[in-house]
Write a structure and sequence with these properties.
Helix content: 10-25%
CATH topology of one domain: Beta-galactosidase, Chain A, domain 5
Mean pLDDT: 93
Low-confidence stretches: 1-20, 238-246
Strand content: 25-35%
Largest sheet: 10 strands, antiparallel
Distance between the termini: 54 Å
Number of strands: 41
CATH architecture of one domain: Distorted Sandwich
Length: about 775
């Protein structure tokens, strides 16, 4: 606990200091937030950006049924299958769930998971919900059917289990190497489990799921010697490399290969807890063993837990927040979720597997993967530039550059995990991540090599209609799906290339991409006031319904209402295209106030958190509430942010309105809670919204502190009356990245009534490529 001082009125009307205990940031985090509803988070143990995400799985589903189980866990599920070592936090798609371990108690050994509705039908166990504990880096639960107290902790590359079995019961552990989250048909291409003479268990499997050809290796040791073991391939027949042989191999072998492997390790009755130590590698079993030896000592569960807790305390301590209790919990949990990915995917010796499936050695950086870039370029990566050391940000960017150099197509990652590309979502959004970091002065990577990689991705004609985009100035819908969205997303990415090229002195590249950055205009229909898809002959596709949402249609996970605001590099131009300030404000209000009662979006899984046609549960809307600022009405942004935060975020399991998407939903809240948001990564500006904290301190990577203070914050005072920076009035509606990094104080004074003049003039508005009203 820490002490915070407050002022109260004492005898004689004098102000006296009172001290109140305020929880440490670590204690304010609730990992169960987002584990119900559509948050898709998991409650298990993970270190900041850790390779291992050790968490309970309550269900595995096939792709078409499993959207709700994208993290492997649902808060209200009645049983736990076991504990696997890899998970995505808040993804809208899934895979992973590797190396599933389940402690077994006394009785018959069951090798199938069974049915949750039929207790005892398989190895899954009911559990005592009241016993469930989740903290950053630690998880625990009592499994009632098996009679086991299970605890989990994790380091960067190691996961550790501690199982306390019932007195007199045999200590047995099942390894099911068959399932994954989202079980695709025939997902396991091949796998192997083997036991060395010293009892170390290693294994490998290749899967063809979301990232085809993904290879994963593990190494595992137990704190007690085995008294027996059984490893089985449970296929009826095995076909590999053209040869077929009988499956159902005997269980007493030291090594078994196949596509349906399970193992049971028996340690007999033991009094002390059994500790299981597991490490992963994307390279080979030797790499997994090296990783196993790199952390956790000699089965030192408490030591690993303490080490990871210290890492979390340091990472969460980058922001000190004083806010009402629920808001403080929600904000610190959001910060926690923002610090899980991109995750380390390089071994302790520096080796990693690239998108070419070859093994490479990192020179001067740690390879990271799990890049959900369509989501995270917006706020997640900009947040990391403020709350993580330069070296961590440089590691991520070096990983992006290395992936482009290893890519068979010479492209930067689009949606990558375990070093492998999924080709999910659109755009080339590694580009703004790199440019934003470079423009903010983050170094530790080769700027020229980065620019080369950015240009290569933006000029690869076969990708997503890029050839037509380069020739026509837009992506034609009769040749490429989701063409309207691709046009505007490419244009924004192009602007960030121009920014970095101009900074590096490459004027020719800058001029080319500055011109391309205006391509958003080629798909904006001034007559209807909406972004629309055009055909190759130049006509807009008809019929046109701005509320229609269908996968593979004109837009990506959205419709015209959301995408018509997407030109972050030129939002002043959007205001002009909409018809000016008043028309823009009216259009924004129409979006938020739209009557959805006759619309059915149940077919679109990602459409969640609706406020009219604003969809907070999906990323295309995330900057839209800040658009009022560009139309000279910051007070309307302040009102809408209150509406969004109050309705979309809560300190409970269903407290996220939509998929967290590897931290983007959470990063939006962290920024908005502090009072500003990076509407245009690459501009080095943050648009001022309104704060939701009484006080916050950013402990910046350069050692300086930036303090946010809010006077008069309450539900009854939702509007900004005035803003000052370092004691001087701030009349513009944005703050520069350089001003934050210099340290200082940003002070808000709140009011029950809007200040309609603050930040409203054209000169007070944030950056726009072509200015305002054009």
């Amino acid at each position: 606990m820490v002490l915070s001082a407050a002022l109260a009125v004492g005898p004689g009307g004098l102000a006296v200091a009172q001290t109140a205990a305020v929880p440490f940031p670590y204690d304010a985090v609730d990992p169960f937030i987002g584990t119900s509803g559509q948050g898709h988070t998991f409650p298990g143990a993970v270190a900041p950006f850790g390779m291992v995400q050790l968490s309970p799985d309550t269900e595995h589903k096939v792709l078409r049924q499993g959207y709700d189980w994208a993290s492997g866990y649902r808060y209200d599920d009645p049983t736990i299958l076991g504990f696997s070592h890899t998970h995505f936090s808040g993804s809208g798609h899934s895979d992973l769930g590797d190396v599933l371990l389940t402690p077994l108690g006394a009785g018959e050994i069951k090798l199938e998971p069974g049915d949750a509705a039929t207790p005892g039908s398989g190895y899954r166990s009911r559990y005592d919900k009241a016993s469930e504990v989740a903290e950053p880096g630690y998880y625990a639960v009592n499994l009632t059917d098996s009679g086991v107290r299970a605890e989990l902790t994790a380091g960067t590359r190691v996961g550790m289990h501690r199982y306390q079995f019932a007195a007199g019961a045999p200590a047995r552990v099942l390894l099911d190497f068959r399932p994954s989250i989202y079980d695709y048909p025939d997902k396991v291409s091949w796998s192997r489990i083997r036991v060395a003479a010293d009892g170390t268990v290693t294994g490998y499997r290749e899967t063809r799921g979301w990232a085809p050809g993904r290879q994963l290796y593990f190494a595992m040791r137990f704190s007690k010697p085995m008294v027996s073991r059984s490893i089985q391939n449970r296929e009826e027949n095995v076909t590999y490399n053209g040869f077929t042989k009988p499956g159902r191999t005997p269980g007493d072998r030291d090594q078994v290969e196949g596509r349906a492997l399970e193992a049971v390790f028996d340690f007999g009755p033991i009094e002390a807890p059994l500790i299981v130590k597991v490490a992963l590698s994307g390279v080979d079993e030797a790499g997994a063993i090296k990783n196993l030896d790199s952390e956790g000592g000699d089965f030192d569960f408490n030591g690993l837990r303490a080490s990871t807790k210290a890492q979390w305390e340091q990472a969460l301590g980058a922001v000190q927040i004083d806010a009402p209790a629920e808001m403080r919990t929600t904000l610190y949990t959001a910060l926690y979720h923002s610090l899980m990915a991109p995750s380390v995917m390089g071994d302790v010796d520096g080796r990693y597997r690239g998108p070419d499936q070859a093994v490479h050695a990192a020179e001067g950086f740690t390879f990271h993967s799990t890049f959900s870039l369509w989501d995270t370029f917006r706020a997640e990566h900009p947040l990391l530039t403020l709350v993580q050391p330069e070296a961590r940000n440089a590691d991520m960017i070096n990983s992006l550059i290395a992936s482009q150099q290893h890519s068979p197509y010479g492209l930067l990652p689009v949606w990558q995990f375990a070093g492998q590309e999924t080709w999910t979502m659109i755009g080339y959004h590694a580009v703004p991540v790199i440019a934003d970091a470079w423009m903010k002065g983050i170094r530790g990577f080769d700027g020229v090599a980065a620019l080369k990689a950015m240009v290569a991705s933006a000029t690869y004609r076969p990708y997503g209609g890029l050839g037509d985009y380069m020739d026509l100035g837009y992506v034609p819908i009769d040749r490429e799906p989701e063409a309207a969205s691709k046009t505007v997303e490419y244009a924004y990415d192009d602007w960030t290339i121009a920014r970095m090229a101009r900074n590096l002195g490459h004027a020719d590249i800058a001029e080319t991409f500055e011109k391309r950055a205006q391509n958003w205009r080629n798909s904006f229909d001034r007559e209807t006031g909406f972004l629309r898809a055009r055909k190759a002959d130049g006509t807009y596709r008809t019929p046109f319904d701005p509320t229609a949402i269908n996968y593979g249609s004109d837009y990506t996970e959205g419709n015209a209402w959301q995408y018509s605001w997407f030109a972050p590099q030129d939002l002043g131009g959007i205001v002009g295209a909409m018809g000016g300030d008043a028309a823009t404000v009216a259009k924004l209000d129409a979006m938020f106030d739209f009557d959805n009662s006759k619309l059915d979006y149940s077919h679109a899984e990602d459409i969640a958190g609706l406020i009219g046609q604003y969809i907070h549960g999906n990323e295309p809307s995330h900057h839209s509430a800040y658009m009022y600022v560009y139309a000279g009405a910051p007070w309307r942004t302040q009102a809408r942010l209150k509406q969004i935060v109050d309705s979309q975020y809560h300190a409970r399991p269903d407290g996220l309105a939509g998929n967290d998407d590897l931290g983007q939903m959470s990063a939006w809240l962290v920024f908005t809670g502090l009072g500003f948001y990076p509407v245009t990564p690459g501009s080095n500006q943050y648009v001022i919204g309104r704060p939701f904290v009484d006080r916050a301190v950013l402990n910046l990577p350069n050692g300086k502190t930036f303090i946010i203070v809010t006077d008069g914050l309450s539900d009854a005072r939702p509007y900004i009356a005035s803003v000052s920076l370092n004691g001087r009035p701030l009349t513009r509606s944005w703050i520069g990245d350089d001003e934050i990094r210099a340290g200082g104080e940003l002070r808000f004074v709140m009011s029950a009534r809007p200040n309609r003049s603050w930040g409203s003039g054209a000169a007070a508005r944030p950056y726009s490529m072509t200015g305002f009203g054009r």
